[in-house]
TrEMBL record:
It comes from Variovorax paradoxus B4. It comes from the Bacteria. This is 4-(hydroxymethyl)benzenesulfonate dehydrogenase. InterPro entries: Ald_DH/histidinol_DH, Ald_DH_C, Ald_DH_CS_CYS, Ald_DH_CS_GLU, Ald_DH_N, Aldehyde_DH_dom. Residues 24-478 form the Aldehyde dehydrogenase domain. One of its GO terms (molecular function) is 4-(hydroxymethyl)benzenesulfonate dehydrogenase activity. Keywords: Oxidoreductase. SUPFAM superfamilies: ALDH-like.
Length: 483
């Protein structure tokens, strides 16, 4: 089995310096819990406030830096991430449990994001328009918001931080970055790369610690002008209330209960591929995972039979082992939670089709077989986000009922449809109440340069990614001048 080095003395990065903290924590390899991945410092409120002050002090200088300087910094970061993608992927696989190919792909994606926003720093934006008054010139420009507090999840510990940090810096903001406590090594490694990119002290800061202390300090500080958070709906609602109360900008991505619709005219084998990739890869630990598979009655039984055979053939094991399809869940708590959902599904009368059992492998890890149930719309597994390797199939009489079931959820992030009907595909794209639609593709899997986000309970505020990121990381100024 492949092992990596333990990261000793993983510290905070505040005002251009590395700092220790009074308390420490440990992250373990979910594929082999005997292996320590990182020993890390836990920031207290005082350190977070110090990082915020450093960012606020650096804000005037960085906000007036040239686009070329910002582009050069981001390009340098992106270049190193891409050059080290195999090494970074190995670290990510060890800390999160994603299979090595998935982990390497995520590291490369993070590099591509920084490269994209290096270009955005140069492109800028603005407009000149004629005034309704003679002799008056009107200009509309974008300016940085100020200090951005970025709180990121554990499931994509390189790509999601890149999606927030890169546009924040590109548009002239200063950053205080708090990664999830489960992934300190990934957060620290990204910060270490950024720290060597010739940024002025205070422009970028890393604070590691709990959401209750470090995260809350970011949300509460009057010096933090914008808060971007990816995580649970419960925590997102708390952040919205606290930050909005002091009129800070807020951007939330809070997951979903995503549906994949399979119509009778679909290529069933391809639809099964989309279901397996969307629902089970990364152990379903993706906000875009399709945990609801809505299948037209005419092909329901055939789809379920083929999906069951595919699940039986999947290889579950150590994330670094060659040929593994799915690694472990990220920690013991998430494994227990997923197994509990299997119990809930059984108790409510959902029909068990396959999986949902803890697995033993040669190393002690958080392994579970992917679970599949036949459910009804009222079952909790068909209504609540699980964030684990469990999906349910819902039977629909026809397209109209399938669309109604797809929209019957308080969330609205991603939805997909498998069909050979252009009519149904186009209707679905228009009428699915989500932020992103997929036709003959898995619900999970998006481009880094396109806008990302959801509707209803899945998101709040401007979209992430691509050119649309400017809506959150800048503010608009309108200028009038007598010509």
């Amino acid at each position: 089995m492949i092992h990596g080095e333990i990261h000793q003395n993983v510290r905070q990065y505040i005002n251009g310096r590395w700092e220790t903290s009074a308390t420490t924590g440990v992250s373990a390899n979910p594929s082999d819990t005997s292996e320590v991945v990182a020993e890390y410092a836990r920031a207290d409120r005082r350190q977070v406030e110090s990082a915020i002050r450093a960012a606020a002090d650096a804000s005037s200088h960085w906000s007036h830096s040239t686009p070329q300087r910002r582009a050069d910094v981001l390009d340098r970061i992106g270049t190193e991430l891409l050059a080290r993608k195999d090494e970074l992927g190995l670290l990510l696989a060890r800390e999160v449990g994603k299979t090595l190919p998935e982990a390497v792909a995520e590291a490369a994606r993070a590099g591509q994001v920084f490269k994209f926003f290096a270009g955005e720093a140069l492109r800028g934006g603005g407009e000149n328009m004629a005034s309704v008054r003679a002799g008056v010139q009107v200009d509309v420009t974008r300016e940085p918001v100020g200090v951005a507090g970025l709180i990121t999840p554990w499931n994509s510990p390189l790509a999601v931080p890149a999606t927030k940090i890169a546009p924040a810096l590109a548009h002239g903001n200063c950053v205080v970055f708090k990664p999830a406590e489960l992934v300190p090594a990934c957060g620290w490694t990204l910060a270490e790369i950024i720290s060597r990119a010739a940024l002025p002290a205070g422009v970028f800061n890393l604070v590691m610690g709990s959401g209750r202390e470090a995260g809350q300090a970011l949300v509460d500080s009057p010096l933090v002008d914008a808060v971007s958070f990816t995580g649970s709906a419960r925590n997102g609602e708390r952040i919205l209330q606290a930050a909005a109360a002091r009129r800070a900008k807020v951007q939330l991505e809070m997951g979903g209960k995503n549906a994949l619709v399979v119509l009778a005219d679909a290529d069933i084998d391809h639809a099964v591929d989309c279901a397996v990739q969307g629902a089970y890869f990364s152990n379903g630990q993706r906000c875009t995972a399709s945990s609801r598979l809505i299948v037209e009655a005419a092909v329901h039984d055939a789809f379920v039979a083929r999906l069951r055979e595919r699940l039986k053939a999947l290889k579950i094991g150590h994330a670094l082992e060659r040929g593994v399809d799915i690694g472990p869940l990220v920690d013991e708590e998430r494994l227990a939670r997923s197994l509990a959902w299997v119990g809930i599904a059984r108790e409510e009368g959902a029909e068990h089709v396959w999986g949902g059992e803890p697995l033993q492998r040669t190393t002690a890890g958080h392994y579970m077989s992917p679970a599949l149930f036949l459910a009804r719309p009222e079952h909790r597994i068909a209504r609540e986000e699980i964030f684990g390797p469990l999906a349910c199939v819902l039977r629909a009489a026809d397209y109209d009922e399938a669309l109604a079931l797809c929209n019957d959820t308080p969330s609205g992030l991603s939805a997909g449809i498998c069909t050979n009907s252009l009519k149904h595909a186009m209707h679905f794209r228009r009428h699915a109440e989500v932020g992103m639609t997929m036709v003959n593709l898995p619900t999970a899997g998006v481009d880094f340069h396109a806008p990302f986000g959801g509707r209803k309970g899945s998101g709040y505020g401007p979209r992430e990614q691509g050119r649309h990121a400017a809506e959150f990381y800048t503010t608009v100024k309108t200028g009038y001048m007598l010509a």
